[in-house]
Design goal:
The structure is a homodimer of 392-residue chains. Chain A is an alpha/beta fold and 392 residues long. Chain A has helices at residues 10-17, 20-31, 87-107, 144-156, 237-245, 259-277, 343-352, 360-373, 382-391; strands at 36-37, 49-55, 69-76, 112-114, 159-168, 174-182, 188-193, 219-221, 224-228, 250-254, 280-284, 287-296, 305-312, 316-318, 333-341. Chain A folds into 2 domains: 36-351, Carbon-nitrogen hydrolase (Nitrilase/N-carbamoyl-D-aminoacid amidohydrolase); 360-391, no CATH class. The longest helix of chain A has 21 residues, at 87-107.
Chain lengths: 392, 392
């Protein structure tokens, strides 16, 4: 198997090779409705940044309710310095780079911005080493990364979702994988802790932190009701579901995932969640290959090595009708800007009726029985079924 | 918007236009692992049948458990006669055509076969007319379609999933949308009734039948533990989930869905379910455009018309690791044959740990609270969250 060329996205390959008419049909099948581009100011920074802007469209103009238009921005990026540099230098370099991206996102009119998982550090959980990496953890209200983002949120009047490695000093110095929600006035209005923790491939995150204890909060912000399904939680449809039941209109999925582990699944899960729950989903993945000083093994029989594999970016947004944007670059930092009408969420509930036909009482009952009985599976034959249905 | 050319599948367009290396990468991104072809005997019937065979692979050879290899077959097809013909002629013509396909599937070594939703009739629910269409409904044990399939199951030693419109004469002549499970000795071992009924576009099925009362049964057959998620149920992740919790290794999704309504979503939902539940999913869609004698409207402001739109086939199978087959034809009848190792289900549970990290107790509790309270959404701020987490 030859190594993938991450310089090209799927969309690049299709656009380069397909005749116009067939390209249009392939895009319809793969992405849904055709999207208009947004006109965005030019990026003038030094960094090679993939900037893409789309108008998601798809909503109708209602007579009795005005449109609720917001601009969402997603930032994906690589680390800046080698992981062997002093931690403070590593973090400062990331802060500096991302600050420029946030300032630029503001010029693009972004109201609601989300960064990638644990964005102010390398994704060091592959190493299984506690130090120095645990030092990157910081307080969810007063840590340096949240303070920086709080300043930027206030400066730009922007809601920012800031995923960090959290140090919970008030509770036994516990670590959590957390996303902090900052209002446009700079106030931290809440946080969510990652609900599902992976033990797959080099994702040894259960070595560092436990399953979150914040449930499924939805945050009423100045720009819509938002929730955060962190990384591996995207494989869990119930996680997406509960955010939907709690009223989310946009669910962000800040992630860090590698090509070998998940790239063929990446386009499926966040998009399925948007369809099933009639809300917008925003999937963000980190970029690049991170090298670590000490070698480690991956439990797959291969020799010890120093890197986690390639984080393939490809961040994208899906509308409640299942239409999605192309993905950002697979190798470069990027900013994806999307103009959305939040009214489309309720319009899709009216159209597809998925909430109305969801039969939650049935699932609450069956799931409870399943959990309480430690599973007596429903595996039975017709005669038994008929007895049951006559009882009802 | 130009009308799609249903003669070409997505895969046709990609294979025709992409250079070899880029084609391989596009296929990896869109489908996962590369699949080997199965060698199948030639189809000699008159009907133009799209026959495709794949070895799904992906499993490892375990030391303490032998492989559990089965061949699954999916049949997609159009109706035979115009809907204006006498009902008995219409049904007989379908019986005759499908019987030939089943006989051929047997020569391909198929152990476990599934047909499309309500396969022995036109999908007349767009009309909202009760007669003559309700006459197609038949008994789940003694109806002519089940009797035919029972004979074929016995003749070929094949398990057959036979979706019908069910007439429940013993219970007030109720109609259900049902799939009957027939063992390889011809015995009807059970049935499942469609759990989620659409009210979208021309899918006026709630005019004809109600939400099923059979829960989420999994059928222990000679060729693995199977369940059936009928059509619109594929939009409901909880439906897929409960079949998984009840032990399903293969979940069939017999469907009837049209291009305009769902084609860009088709590749997402059944595939997502395979990933999330570590089982095989088999999505089957009917083929062709069905004309009805009386005109009807679609609630979309368009003029009255006589057809439901184009059923686009595209049946496909997904493995528990997310790898999927190409789709069958978008315009022709087809048989998809896949050789699977059922052991891959448990292997993927061990690899991804999605069952282990599922936190069902959390969801049972939250879902129950949601249903009992008629929703008090979890929308709160940090101070409240901290109070809650200290309580735990």
């Amino acid at each position: 198997m030859s190594k993938p060329n991450f310089e090209q996205t799927l969309e690049d390959i299709l656009e380069k090779n397909l005749p116009q008419e067939e390209l249009a049909e392939v895009k319809r099948l793969l992405y849904g409705r055709e999207l208009d581009f947004l006109f965005l100011p030019k990026w003038n920074g030094n960094q090679d940044l993939d900037v893409q802007g789309y108008d998601m469209g798809g909503s109708i103009t209602e007579e009795l309710r005005p449109p609720r238009i917001v601009r969402v921005g997603l930032i994906q990026h690589s680390i800046v310095l080698p992981t062997t540099e002093p931690l403070k230098k590593q973090r400062n370099a990331l802060h500096l780079k991302i600050q420029k991206y946030v300032d630029y996102a503001a010029t693009c009119g972004v109201n609601l911005l989300c960064l990638q998982e644990a964005w102010a550090m390398p994704f060091a959980f592959c190493t299984r080493e506690k130090y120095p990496w645990c030092e990157f953890a910081e307080d969810a209200e007063n840590g340096p990364t949240v303070i920086l983002m709080s300043e930027l949120a206030q400066r730009h009047g922007m809601v920012i979702i800031c995923p960090i490695l959290e140090r919970d000093s008030a509770n036994g110095d516990t670590l959590w994988n957390t996303s902090v929600v900052i209002e446009k006035d700079g106030t931290v209005i809440g946080k969510h802790r990652k609900n599902h923790i992976p033990r797959v491939g080099d994702f040894n995150e259960s070595t560092y932190y436990m399953e979150g204890n914040t449930g499924h909060p939805v945050f009423e912000t100045s720009f819509g009701r938002v929730a955060i399904n962190i990384c591996y939680g995207r494989h869990h449809p119930q996680n997406w579901m509960m955010f939907g039941l709690n009223g989310a209109e946009i669910v962000f999925n800040p992630s860090a995932t590698t090509s070998h582990t998940s790239e063929p699944l990446w386009s499926i899960e966040a998009r399925n969640a948007a369809i099933a729950n009639s809300y917008y989903t925003c999937a963000i993945n980190r970029v690049g290959t991170e090298q670590f000083p000490n070698e480690f093994t991956s439990g797959d029989g291969a020799p010890a090595h120093h890197d986690f594999g390639h984080f393939y970016g490809s961040s994208y947004i899906t509308a409640p009708d299942g239409t999605r944007t192309p993905g950002l670059s697979r190798s470069k930092d990027g900013l994806l800007v999307c103009e959305l009408d939040l009214n489309l969420c309720r319009q899709m509930k009216d159209f597809w009726c998925l909430r109305m036909t969801q039969r939650l009482d049935l699932y609450a009952r069956e799931l409870n029985e399943y959990v309480q009985n430690n599973l007596i599976p429903q595996q039975k034959h017709m005669k038994q079924q008929e007895k049951d249905s006559k009882k009802q």
